[in-house]
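Morning F.,

Quick status update on the modeling queue. The single chain you submitted on Monday has been processed. Sequence for confirmation:
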Amino acid sequence: MISFDSKNKGFTLIEVMAVLTILGILTAIAVPSLLGVIEKAERDVCRVNVLQLERLYERYLVLEGIEHTDVVFDQYLRNYGEEICSEQGDVTYVDGRVRFSDFQSDDRDENGGVPFL
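Structure tokens below.
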């Protein structure tokens, strides 16, 4: 039979506080990292969608034998029917490239180099 004595009734307040402190530290490290990963994934999906839209629009112009105009691009966007990015922004076609206003499609600075991390 198991005997219970008065010294081993449960956890002490210090033990509980130590566990809560460790959990708080782990949470403080994990949550920002997770949010950063989610944000990067959303940017990557948006970038891929913009590139795919650019390729499909260029094919559309070639197959239909028409020249690009803003009206043609706007009509194509309405017919495309999918949300390009989860964020709200303007999608434009400039100099043969599709641009999304809320992110830069290139990760390069104005000198053409990779930005400092």
